[in-house]
């Protein structure tokens, strides 16, 4: 019997380029000297430093306290001396107050890092507390504090949890390798999330171009009731939160609402793995898997790295640049952020470091819109990108709002298919920012 493949309206099929790194097992990389740990690596309020210059810190020690409900604490990923607390460039594209630590190379763990009870012996509120104190956030790139997702409004009953293992961005293979190498821990994290929310059903959504991962996760799910793999049709942006929900459950998240509104919570497989480690070992989120890849890298790899490790070190560890780099991107080519420096640090949401050579960077020479409607066909949110973009370029943001610009997920599908190379996603992003800024006023 043919297995059902879940999918959604719209989307595109860009070349994946995953063959560059998907066969390379995860290697551990330890930073050479300094790590730079931003006090804001998440959506929400930045942290307050708990240490000062010249303090000695240990691995896993909390060095930044969360301020507010939507926030997440940060921890030291090395042992050593705090040498600076100052604004530093972040891969988010902003200057962020950061704690700079000179590693002593010993990696001595903080005495408070101890295993927790088995999940079966933990109460939902205890799981939520562990997740909060571990500083766990969405590791697919969104960096929304996970503890907030585990505390939905009291009138919202969550019955389905989905783990996002789609990894639909071209080039990136960190989640793929994690599913192959740590399937039991990922499912363990899923069960913890389900228990914290009182959910009865759990899915791990994986695209059908990762058959080996599907096999391993299915094997890990076998002994548990209520959890299964949902095989997703390979299409971008299949990993978008709203689209993976629609594909698997048939439910639609209303405009301006969150998935809890329809009884669903979505987390990344990397987030589930981090939760499993926090429960089993008491380990806060101090490291993650990062894909270093692209035609501009000598030897692409998947690396387990300490938070705060500079991009430069990881690029050098992978053999350095192949030729002259045209662009270094944090994340994937569709939704990643181009970097002006490779001295920025890996943060909790850094899924990849993509290096593209000069000859792959096409300079856009926009031409007039020809009304071909390819952007409309590709838009997974059923928007009209050509009109939103046109009004944005005329600074008519009220009209952009009428065309639901704020519902854009900035996936870049419209720009990808546009034959006139119009700045569609860029101008829509501008409109969204202006609409939201005006709303805050």
From TrEMBL:
InterPro entries: 4Fe4S_Fe-S-bd, 4Fe4S_Fe_S_CS, Ion_transpt_RnfC/RsxC, Nuo51_FMN-bd, Nuo51_FMN-bd_sf, RnfC_N, Soluble_ligand-bd. The keyword Cell membrane applies. Belongs to the 4Fe4S bacterial-type ferredoxin family. RnfC subfamily. Keywords: 4Fe-4S, Cell membrane, Electron transport, Iron, Iron-sulfur, Membrane, Metal-binding, Repeat, Translocase, Transport. It comes from Thermoanaerobacterium butyriciformans. It is a peripheral membrane protein. [4Fe-4S] cluster 2 binds at residues 379, 408, 411, 414. Its EC number is 7.-.-.-. It comes from the Bacteria. The complex is composed of six subunits: RnfA, RnfB, RnfC, RnfD, RnfE and RnfG. It is found in: Cell membrane. This is Ion-translocating oxidoreductase complex subunit C. Pfam families: Complex1_51K, Fer4_10, RnfC_N, SLBB.
């Amino acid at each position: 019997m043919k297995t059902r493949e879940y999918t959604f309206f719209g989307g595109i099929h860009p070349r994946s380029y995953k063959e560059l790194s998907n066969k390379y097992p995860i290697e551990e990389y330890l930073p050479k000297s300094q790590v730079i740990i931003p006090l804001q690596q998440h959506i929400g309020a930045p942290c307050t430093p708990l240490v000062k210059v010249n303090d000695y810190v240990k691995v896993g020690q909390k060095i930044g306290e969360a301020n507010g409900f939507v926030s997440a604490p940060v921890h030291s990923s090395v042992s050593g001396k705090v040498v600076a607390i100052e604004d530093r460039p972040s891969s988010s594209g902003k200057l962020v107050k950061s704690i700079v630590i000179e590693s002593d190379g010993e990696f001595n763990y903080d005495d408070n890092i101890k295993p927790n009870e088995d999940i079966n012996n933990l109460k939902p509120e205890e799981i939520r507390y562990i997740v909060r104190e571990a500083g766990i956030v969405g590791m697919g790139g969104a960096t929304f504090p996970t503890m907030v997702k585990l505390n939905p409004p009291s009138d919202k009953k969550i019955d389905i949890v989905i783990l996002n293992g789609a990894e639909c961005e071209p080039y990136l293979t960190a989640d793929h390798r994690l599913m192959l190498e740590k399937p039991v821990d990922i499912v363990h994290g899923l069960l913890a999330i389900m228990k914290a929310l009182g959910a009865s059903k759990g899915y791990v959504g994986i695209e059908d171009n990762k058959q080996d991962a599907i096999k391993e996760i299915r094997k890990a799910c076998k002994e548990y009731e209520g959890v299964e793999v949902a095989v997703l049709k390979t299409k971008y942006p299949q990993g978008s939160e709203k689209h993976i929900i629609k594909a698997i459950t048939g439910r639609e998240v209303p405009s301006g609402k969150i998935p809890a509104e329809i009884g669903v919570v979505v987390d990344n497989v990397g987030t589930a793995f981090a939760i499993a480690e926090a429960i089993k070992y008491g380990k806060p989120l101090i490291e993650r898997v990062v894909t270093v890849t692209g035609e501009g890298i000598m030897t692409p790899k998947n690396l387990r790295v300490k938070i705060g490790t500079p991009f430069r070190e990881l690029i050098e560890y992978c053999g350095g640049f192949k030729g002259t780099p045209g662009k270094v991107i944090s994340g994937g080519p569709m939704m990643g952020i181009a970097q002006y420096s490779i001295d920025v640090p890996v943060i909790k949401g850094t899924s990849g470091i993509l290096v593209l050579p000069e000859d792959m960077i096409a300079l856009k020479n926009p031409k007039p819109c020809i009304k071909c409607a390819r952007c409309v066909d590709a838009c997974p949110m059923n928007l009209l990108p050509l009109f939103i973009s046109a009004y944005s370029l005329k600074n008519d943001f009220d009209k952009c709002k009428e065309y639901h610009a704020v519902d854009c997920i900035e996936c870049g599908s419209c720009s990808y298919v546009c034959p006139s190379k119009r700045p569609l996603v860029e101008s829509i992003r501008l409109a969204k920012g202006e609409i939201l800024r005006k709303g805050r006023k």
